[in-house]
Design brief:
19% strand; 13 helices; four-stranded mixed sheet; Spore Coat Polysaccharide Biosynthesis Protein SpsA, Chain A; alpha/beta; five-stranded mixed sheet; 297 residues
Length: 297
């Protein structure tokens, strides 16, 4: 086995906690990338299953795999940031511990980076799977190629669904500048802030594979009560998650000038438009009325 290059071009960060059964698949998919100059970083958030053994075995097999073990559970947001802090590549991608990449994911995204100078985020299409691993639903994020930052951000919030672009390939320096808050909707804010800096490009012929949110045990975002608990947020935020996320989005654009990537006048216009946009989206969604009816009962 040849030694890895001294400085990787791409870093893939996998934060994990107590999900050793799917973790190995995630790690192996990152290690199997057809682009050769990739490092893989795992941050184990003080798991008490056999995550340590799985990581140790794979680390002995692959010199480009690094494992960080947290001495105590630091929460999911900080664990996501731990892999970013440890990364050395010019480009970075997160990979959830129950997801996996096609072998050509990094290579296909890098090719788009080479030909699309206005890109800020490049991602493959998302393919969702059931509990047996069978593909059940492909979802392609619409590319956001408008030359005007404010219009890209508005179109993003208008068309937002599963936000798989969060797991795309991003310039590491941009991610460090944008950051990731410990709040509901933080992944939305991160992607929106990146889109203020450049375009979202969808790489053809490659996929991020994800567990369908209704296929058994999913990630944190499938249950708002669980999300609030693991993020250490007040339980009332889980009761009205939509209101909480809208509040977080509006607070972000009211207070975070540099991080948002937008000029003051653009942020002001966005603050005027977004509440109306979110209300229209909620009222046009049948699930909104079903959830509201269940709370009234």
């Amino acid at each position: 086995m040849s030694a890895p290059e001294s400085r990787p071009l791409v870093s893939v960060g996998i934060p994990t906690f107590n999900r050793s059964k799917s973790l190995e698949r995630a790690i192996r998919s990152a290690l199997a990338q057809t682009h050769g100059n990739v490092e893989v970083i795992v941050s184990d958030n003080a798991s008490d299953d056999d995550t340590v053994e799985v990581c140790g075995r794979l680390q002995r097999e692959h010199a480009n795999l690094r494992v960080i073990r947290q001495q105590r559970n630091v929460g999911p947001t900080l664990n996501f940031l731990k892999v970013l802090e440890a990364a050395r590549g010019d480009y970075f991608a997160w990979l959830a511990d129950d997801d996996w990449f096609d072998d050509n994911y990094v290579e296909a995204c890098l090719e788009e980076w080479r030909t699309q100078p206005r890109a800020a985020l490049v991602a493959g299409a998302a393919m969702f799977h059931d509990t047996e691993g069978r593909p059940v639903e492909p979802r392609v994020e619409p590319p956001l190629r408008n030359s005007r930052p404010l219009l890209r951000v508005l179109r993003y919030f208008l068309g937002l669904r599963h936000n798989s672009a969060f797991y795309g390939l991003i310039r590491r320096r941009d991610l460090i500048e944008v950051g990731l808050d410990n709040a509901m909707g933080a992944d939305w804010l991160m992607v929106a802030a990146l889109l203020a800096r450049g375009e979202l490009v969808i790489a053809a012929g490659t996929h991020l594979h994800r567990r369908h949110p209704h296929a058994g045990e999913g990630g944190t975002s499938t249950d708002y009560r669980r999300m609030a608990a693991v993020l250490g947020l007040p339980s009332v935020q889980a009761r009205w998650p939509g209101i909480t996320i809208v509040r977080n989005v509006l607070h972000f654009y009211a207070t975070q000038g540099r991080r948002s990537g937008l000029d003051r006048w653009q942020r002001g216009l966005l603050l005027g438009i977004l509440p109306f946009l979110f209300v229209v989206r909620a009222l046009s969604n049948p699930n909104f009325w079903l959830r509201l009816a269940s709370r009234v009962r």
